[in-house]
Amino acid sequence: HLPERRNQVALITLDGEGRLEKWTYGELQELSARLAGRLRALGVRTGDKVAVYLPTGLEAALTLLALARLGAVHVALPVGLGAVPLRERLLDLKPRLLVAADAYFRRGQPVPLRPVVEEATRGLDLPVLWHRRGVSEFLEEALEGPPLDPEPVPADHPLFALYTSGSTGKPKGVVHVHGGYMVGVSWHLR
Fold first, then answer.
1. How far apart are CA 96 and CA 16, in angstroms?
2. φ, ψ of residue 40 in degrees (nearest 5)
3. Contact 99, 50 (CB under 8 A)
4. Interstrand relation of 128-131 and 49-53 (parallel, antiparallel or unpaired)
5. For the chain, how far is it from start to end, CA to CA, in angstroms?
6. What is the rounded CA–CA span in Å between residue 179 and residue 80?
7. DSSP state string for 22-67
8. What is the value of pTM for the model shown?
9. What stretch of H or E contains 76?
10. In this predicted structure, what is the pLDDT of residue 144?
11. What is the C-alpha separation between 187 and 189, in angstroms, rounded?
């Protein structure tokens, strides 16, 4: 990012407990670079697939930015998925890692996710990096990683995959690439 934007607000989050926080471009860059270092220490490499089962918010944003920095392919899976559809997607994806929350908030009430994830991953050789709601452990773990510079990748390198709903049969993943996605976003915003 440009140096003059380092202190500008880039992200405003409102968590399920009603806390409003603001994050600058500089803070997001530093945290995502350190989380990328933590993910690298967990064995995530360029081109690896990582499933993300997190509610929207800071942790999800940092995770996606860190994975893009590594050149890893992220697949964001909606937290509303039950154990069976989550397992189906994990079996299809064969990710190196699953980043998951143990709970999320809906209408101000915590909804447990850990039992869903544990059922979906039972018998799979799949490590899980947990984000525990209400505990800053996830960010503390992110700060343990050495900051990593972005991994240079070609414009047609996969950035993320989105799964269809699966309402007409087996869900299918649609892959978006770094260059094409960024050009498309830029074009639409103009």
1. 29
2. -60, -40
3. yes
4. unpaired
5. 19
6. 30
7. EEEHHHHHHHHHHHHHHHHHTT--TT-EEEEE--SSHHHHHHHHHH
8. 0.87
9. strand 73-76
10. 77
11. 6
Average pLDDT over residues 179-190: 75
Check pLDDT > 80 for residue 181: no
Buried b or exposed e, range 75-99, using 16+ CB within 10 angstroms: bbbebebeeebbbbbbeebebbbbb
CB 167 within 8 A of CB 180: no
Residue 58: alpha-carbon gap to chain centroid:
10
- Residues 2-5: contacts with CB under 8 Å, at least 24 apart: none
- CA distances for 80 relative to 84, 85, 115, angstroms: 12, 10, 13
Kindly state the tokens that stand for 182.
């960024």
Across 33-42, average pLDDT: 93
Beta bridge partners of 50: 74, 97
